[in-house]
Design the sequence.
């Protein structure tokens, strides 16, 4: 499940990922908001906080993530991943090689610092 966090603004979004992410999460929450940011600003700024119960992506959601990420790899200014397990941190670092924007991972206790970095 994806949930928009209250610190989201017109310039950047903050999302909380719980459990296993689905195609619906991408189609109804993340992708429309990112498209809106890209259309308004040219580049998106996003923080994704992974809750302690985060279990990854359903196959279709993983495809949504990969497809959107590749299509918009030049459309991100900053992407912060907060609290990722080691396997997600590794995948994020690999994926960052294909993006033109900045990508950074933060520990679970560093949400405030991550948001400040995204907004800066």
Sequence:
């Amino acid at each position: 499940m994806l949930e928009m966090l209250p610190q989201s603004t017109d310039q950047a979004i903050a999302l909380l990922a719980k459990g296993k992410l689905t195609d619906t999460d991408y189609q109804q929450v993340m992708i429309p908001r990112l498209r809106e940011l890209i259309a308004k600003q040219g580049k998106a700024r996003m923080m994704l906080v992974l809750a302690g119960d985060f279990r990854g992506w359903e196959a279709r959601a993983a495809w949504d993530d990969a497809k959107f990420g590749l299509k918009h790899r030049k459309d991100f200014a900053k992407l912060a991943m907060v609290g990722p397990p080691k396997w997600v941190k590794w995948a994020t670092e690999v994926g960052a090689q294909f993006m033109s924007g900045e990508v950074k991972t933060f520990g679970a206790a560093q949400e405030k610092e991550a948001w400040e970095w995204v907004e800066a």
Observations:
- Residues 23-41 form the longest helix (19 residues).
- The chain has one domain: 2-119.
